[in-house]
Amino acid sequence: MAFLADALSRVKPSATIAVSQKARELKASGRDVIGLGAGEPDFDTPDNIKKAAIDAINRGETKYTPVSGIPELREAISKKFKRENNLDYTAAQTIVGTGGKQILFNAFMATINAGDEVVIPAPYWVSYPEMVSICGGTPVFVATAQENNFKLTAEDLDKAITPKTKWFLFNSPSNPSGAAYSHAELKALTDVLLKHPHVWVLTDDMYEHLTYGDFKFATPVEVEPKLYDRTLTMNGVSKAYAMTGWRIGYAAGPLALIKAMDMIQGQQTSGACSIAQWAAVEALNGTQDFIPENKKIFEGRRDLVVSMLNQAKGISCPSPEGAFYVYPSCKGLIGKTAPTGKVIETDEDFVSELLESEGVAVVHGSAFGLGPNFRISYATSEALLEEACKRIQRFCAACK
Ligand SMILES: Cc1ncc(COP(=O)(O)O)c(C=O)c1O
């Protein structure tokens, strides 16, 4: 009898964590390494949010909370959906989890039977297929094209849906491409979904507040209210409020699904950290001034990185609407010889040679299901980004 569960044979370790680990090891050995692998804002959590947590500790809010979250936070989430997305969800239709990650995981756990399919546009966030596989489902990938700014077409979505499709997993702005769907682009997809009433929609809106220029964020139920009864709208405070370590995510959806997720969470972690929940109440109800300030900084970094990457030989980089990632193609370098003498055959070769030659750590696109590309996180200072892009330009010029 095997000791480890069969489910583990279907799961890959996270490539993004592996890159961060490798960069840390090289740094520890004395190498000058710039890590562009991180999936978190480099800003600190705003002071009003930290204070709310400290106040919660001082008030003794240190006990178990209800599994789905403290009523104050569920109320704040309900208000957030009305205020920002024009969606009507009662507090009872919301659930708070230990990060957006737990929300996604428990939604799959609560709904997936062996063989159920989950349609996932590629490139995708590394955890999606692994979560689906652990729960016994089958991820069905649909490739997008760089020429279409990594956005799924209605036709391709339609073709991917089968009688076994349980969920369509939607993520805008996207990790890793930064692509965000306009209202009209999303409407084309929701029109397809209306034709397939057995398909549920799981929308991961984690990067909602990180969009640039005059782009206007839209979420599926806002665009097509007829999807209300079969959509789980997921979000969280991690990225918008620089609260990745606090581990608070949330979702709203049909009551029966929320109750099923509550049941799983009740046998698993129970309620999320009480103190972090009080901090999240302040994040959602308190001043939102922090968000536009951050967006401005991220937008400047995006423009810098896109412009410098497009000046690197063999690289082409679209300018995405949101998140803090770009997803350039390194197709022009495939078949070239790196300074170490190694021929670059894949995007994985490209990123490992780049790390070796110039000490810049990025993540290969094949880890996100679409290449030859690589992901750069620009959640770091302009000075470091500029230096990293200079090194990438130098590396590309040195490949023959
Ligand atoms: C697209 C996407 N969804 C969800 C998450 C998970 O967020 P959390 O840190 O709240 O678990 C991440 C984090 O990287 C993400 O990139």
What is the fold's blueprint, element by element?
Elements: H1 15-28, E1 34-35, H2 47-59, H3 71-85, E2 94-97, H4 99-111, E3 117-122, H5 127-134, E4 138-143, H6 154-160, E5 165-171, H7 183-194, E6 200-204, H8 220-223, E7 231-236, E8 249-252, H9 255-266, H10 274-285, H11 290-310, E9 325-326, H12 347-358, E10 360-361, E11 363-364, E12 374-377, H13 382-398
Parallel strand pairs: 1-10, 3-4, 3-5, 5-6, 6-7
Antiparallel strand pairs: 2-8, 7-8, 9-12, 11-12
Helix pairs in contact: 2-10, 3-10, 4-5, 4-9, 6-7, 11-13
The structure holds pyridoxal-5'-phosphate.
Helicity level, as a percent range? 40-55%
Q: What does the average pLDDT come to? A: 96
Q: What is the number of strand segments? A: 12
Taking the sheet with the most strands, its summary is: 7 strands, mixed
Question: Strand arrangement, largest sheet?
Answer: 2-8-7-6-5-3-4
Q: Give the CA-based shape.
A: globular
SSE sequence, one letter per element: HEHHEHEHEHEHEHEEHHHEHEEEH
Count of separate DSSP helical elements: 13
What does this protein look like?
The structure is a single chain. The chain is of the alpha/beta class and about 400 residues long. The protein is about 40% helix and about 10% strand. It has 13 helices and twelve strands. Strands 2-8-7-6-5-3-4 form a seven-stranded mixed sheet, with helices on both faces. The protein has a three-stranded antiparallel sheet with strand order 9-12-11. Helix 7 links the parallel strand 5 and strand 6. Helix 6 packs parallel to helix 7. The longest helix is centred in the C-terminal third of the chain and has 21 residues. The model has no long low-confidence stretch (mean pLDDT about 95). Pyridoxal-5'-phosphate (PLP) binds next to helix 4.
